[in-house]
Design brief:
Helices cover about 30% and strands about 15% of the residues. By secondary structure, it is an alpha/beta fold. The chain has two domains: about 1-35 and about 80-130 and about 180-259, Rossmann fold; about 35-80 and about 130-175, 2-Layer Sandwich (SIR2/SIRT2 'Small Domain'). The chain has a six-stranded parallel β-sheet with strand order 3-2-1-7-8-9, with helices on both faces. The radius of gyration is 19 Å and the shape is elongated.
Length: about 260
């Protein structure tokens, strides 16, 4: 049993929703232990400049430290497990909610670059900032196989060469100054325009253009529930704010929706 109280009007909104949009950020993955860029065990990355590790110019100048850092983050993501919040979202999607066809119309838009939503069982997920685990050539964009992930962080690793053009393989994340994936963003927009309930989980709402998406639904008068331990820039859009974590708040909300 959960101790998170779900207001009665939110219970009603969750039960009656026909199309649900779940918008997740770093707090979603934090409950699975992916709450920091830096490695707490060795301190190797304790002074890393995260922004310097996320630009195409830095990659062109010296890709080896970036490759080592992203591979270590990918290894940590592989070792992490979906938390109860991820599992609750997948359960809601698979439940007989909505128009009675046996499946909830639930779409997930995430700013996270791990695959925890998919491993929990969610099948309709848009990744606005790419994926740590989708590798491609930095020159010709040809998809590349997943390399062997390190078991311990190291300072430098040389990226493998693309089988097509010989260019260095890069992680499939979106770096500063790069465009968001067109299809993922279009799917997220369509969901915001078509949903009748938005659930915001674990995002501060400060990274644009992703942070502007919930407003598309709010402007239509769609009710919004925020799940976050603290107030954020998206709190003013919210009809309800549950001051709790993803791992606690989402199971409570889904229990209410399915109850």
């Amino acid at each position: 049993m959960t101790s998170v109280a779900i207001p009665t009007d939110l219970q009603d909104a969750a039960r009656s929703a026909r199309r649900v949009e779940v918008f997740t950020g770093a707090g979603m993955s934090a409950d699975s232990g992916l709450d920091t860029f830096r490695d707490a065990t060795t301190g190797l990355w304790s002074n890393v400049d995260a922004q310097a590790m996320a630009t195409l110019d830095s990659w062109r100048r010296d890709p080896d430290p970036m490759w080592a850092w992203y591979l270590w983050r990918a290894a940590r993501a592989r070792d992490a497990a979906p938390n109860p919040g991820h599992l609750a979202i997948a359960r809601w999607q698979d439940s007989p909610v909505g128009d009675g066809d046996g499946n909830a119309h639930l779409h997930v838009t995430t700013q996270n670059i791990d695959d925890l939503h998919e491993r929990a069982g969610s099948t309709d997920v848009s990744h606005l900032h790419g994926s740590l685990l989708a590798f491609r050539c930095s020159v010709c964009d040809r998809p590349a196989p997943e390399p062997e992930l390190p078991t311990w962080p190291v300072e430098r690793l040389t990226p493998p060469e693309c089988a097509e053009c010989g260019g260095p393989v890069r992680p499939g994340v979106v770096w500063f100054g790069e465009s968001l994936p067109e299809q993922d963003f279009a799917d997220a927009e369509a969901s915001m325009f078509g949903c009748d309930l938005v659930v915001i989980v674990g995002t501060s709402g400060v990274v644009f253009p992703a942070a502007g998406l919930p407003e598309l639904a709010a402007r239509r008068g769609v009710p919004v529930v925020e799940i976050s331990p603290a107030a954020t820039d998206l709190t003013p859009l919210s009809t309800w704010s549950l001051r709790t974590t993803a791992a606690s708040g989402l199971p409570a909300l889904v229990d209410a929706a399915l109850g």
